[in-house]
């Protein structure tokens, strides 16, 4: 049997190209002692993948040239050499972008049956959900009655951030691209207002919908929107740096720094980054909370599923063009 | 009798010019009910004054055109219409840049006699000292054993930051301009190391003296040094934004944003600004602590005193050129 996989072929310069990846087929791997072989069902496509492709120091090592592209996925155990897992178990873990993956059993997290469809564990109940949870509650110190602004608000993380904000009793304003996404976050997800960054006077719209200013800005995009938000901070505001997707594909990796950062000084405000992996010991707490809101209907999920391993490079590019609508997932099997 | 004063004549474009101020002589003011008339002895010259000259929203309103330039000073009460103050009392407060000032008695803080020479209340025992205290301890969350980097380290605030850092048991590295200032902060103030930003390979020197990276960066300058420090943050580091003197006189008020701000994300680190006025209710705590270190010889003071009210514009310009060595003060009487 064969295992088809996507490997990193070249380090991108600026925007990712389909040619930065190479599709190969290798023999099916066998699990060693303590390991399990998993058949990939779904693979999560995330903005963070762009960072893993750069040869730069970060919170984890870059993907090496010629290595299978790193990804988190959901799959089914085919064979296990560890008593904690058995064939047929549904798990999430480092599938990477391939049909079959072997990893130590402790890297595969067993998922409960019947709670949600498998792909949901890559979205609102998975890393994006937990990123939203720790980012908003711990880093952002969100409080009822405050004004929350979130960018990429129809995206995998942003949509959960806004819904948690509503569950906590905040005024929630989302920034998204296009009328459909803006309508979705207000009508379906219950945001108080949406600002379309692709049309009209964005600054004026932000002022209209955040009349008292911003207490928490949850930033997924960086660039000009970050500067606009900084200019509207309230006293002791918190800016949560979760990502900067507008900057990831810049030529030469040069990032545009926030020119308005002195707003932190005049408002005694804070800008704080985080990596969800640093909260690993508290994942169970986050999953419990997210599953609770999900059951109560306070946390709605939307996935944008692309079918077929062959589609991987094109699907990833849709993410950086802002073309996905909902959590972008690749269906592998 | 006459009261000579410097008024704001024009809003500076880029670097402050002597012609942005106008010297006038007016009649000596009389204190109204509840007010006191103070004869100015010393006036503090601070980087923040540049911000007060811009017609922009900030933590306090700008100085109006034609108004006396705002400044904090030390002086002697000449006449008082409030029982809390009597002629002859030494006070600190809003003298502004003039020979005599009238203000409500509660805006004048009475200073104890015999603790320190009057000018010291504008330096290590005054706003710069308290700025260092709250910035390092509260905002920076400084801890023994950590590495502290401070810019403008021979300046009024930076010198106190480094000395408090040593008193708390930190490894302290200062950035200053020129061999004299670098020698001073190490030999006289007890810093562990100094980096001269005007000579040699600054990045290499920072790496040499902060081999484990930076836990707390106390920033007074902004610009390229801020970016270098961001690139060296340790996990959960704190960047304290106290000022950005390298940026205050930029054409058009455009500030260079920190390109490396995504270091906050990969290191789960924080950048936080503050204004010392927001800690007003805790000033007594800070003064007690600073006076204690001062008595014990752990907090050394150095003032750079320019003699004569006429020298005001030139003296202020020295500050922005980095030509002062120690807390810059104008002697008025």
Average per-residue pLDDT of chain A, rounded, comes to 95
Which residues of chain A form runs of ≥5 with pLDDT under 50?
A: none
Ends apart, CA distance between termini of chain A:
15 Å
Tell me the β content of chain A: 25-35%
Evaluate the radius of gyration of chain A: 20 Å
Q: What is the 3D form of chain A?
A: globular
Overall structural class of chain A, as computed from helix and strand content, comes to alpha/beta
Main sheet overview of chain A: 7 strands, mixed
Give the largest interface: A-B, 34 and 34 residues
The helical percent of chain A reads 10-25%
Question: What would you call the quaternary organization?
Answer: homodimer
Helical run tally of chain A: 9
Order of helices and strands of chain A, N to C?
A: EEEHEEEEHEHEHEHEHEHEHEHE
Count of extended strands of chain A = 15
